[in-house]
Write a structure and sequence with these properties.
266 residues, alpha/beta, 60s Ribosomal Protein L30, Chain: A, Alpha/beta knot, 2 domains, five-stranded mixed beta sheet, 36% helix, 20% strand
């Protein structure tokens, strides 16, 4: 039976609200996800929240009722609350009607099975959580095995990244590694490392890509460091026909992922 909490000062509300901060997410091993669509995606992927907060709007959506029942059946806690408190949890003036607290889902690099998918996404020093979430969503769209974060990237479990992933945080494998550890792991099996760069003349549609293909995208402003680019099996360039000198990091990743996918489909 859901418990009702309407006070901002309630310790449970304060603890959930604190998960908007990275240090609390790290210490608790928990993160927030909001919205019926994302929570439903999580449930379909086999993930239920440890706590679910939902608004008392008189007649809850049937999927909300299903999520609440499944969460409680799995030993989680359901809390009925106000829209104002949901706004505090999500950081949005017009909050979603449901917010979940989930256990973080990182995968050790060594635990990844590169044979399960022909495409993998790799991001180096990515700083924008929206880009990171969009890359997860792109990975889901092209059937990628997952996203590997290299060096110091934005937190994939931030509210912004989870929101941008549109549920792909629950469907894509996610690993984090230092560059040297990633290279050692990659060389331990099959895999073609494909970097995107402005400092090459090789058009991105020219090569024949090989599976498993690891598409490497660098930092939004700096791109790939020279030694990282030198370690790639292929370094390719997406042509720019207008005045802009480059694409957004998440957009270029999507362009590359679909080019590789289309080659494999043919």
């Amino acid at each position: 039976m859901p418990r009702e909490i309407t006070a901002f000062s309630n310790p449970l509300i304060k603890r959930a609200r604190a998960l908007r901060d990275k240090k609390h997410r790290r210490s608790e091993g928990l993160f927030l996800a909001e919205g019926l669509r994302i929570l439903t995606e999580a449930q379909e992927a086999g993930h239920l929240p440890v706590q679910i907060f939902f608004a008392d709007d008189g007649s809850p959506h049937p999927r909300t009722e299903s999520l609440v029942a499944a969460t409680e059946a799995a030993g989680g806690e359901a809390i009925v609350t106000t829209r104002a408190i949901l706004s505090k949890l999500s950081g949005k003036d017009n909050p979603q009607a449901v917010v979940g607290v989930y256990r973080e889902l990182p995968t050790a690099l060594e635990a990844l099975d590169r044979t399960v998918a022909p495409i993998w996404l790799v991001a180096q020093a990515l700083r924008d959580p929206g880009n990171l979430g969009t890359m997860l969503r792109t990975g889901d769209a092209v059937g990628a095995g997952g996203l590997i974060l290299i060096d110091d990237c934005a937190d994939p479990f931030s509210v912004e990244a989870v929101r941008a992933s549109m549920g792909a945080i629950f469907t894509e494998s996610l690993a984090m590694a230092r560059w040297e550890d990633f290279l050692a792991w990659l060389k331990g099996g099959d895999g073609q490392l494909i970097g995107t760069s402005l400092d090459t003349e090789l058009d991105y549609q020219a090569p024949d890509y090989a599976a498993p293909a690891f598409i490497l995208t660098g930092n939004e402003s700096a791109g790939l460091p020279p030694d990282y680019a030198a370690a790639c099996d292929l370094l390719v360039k997406i042509p720019m026909r207008g005045k802009a000198d480059s694409l957004n990091a998440a957009v270029s990743t999507a362009v590359m992922a679909y080019e590789v996918l289309n080659q494999f489909r043919r």
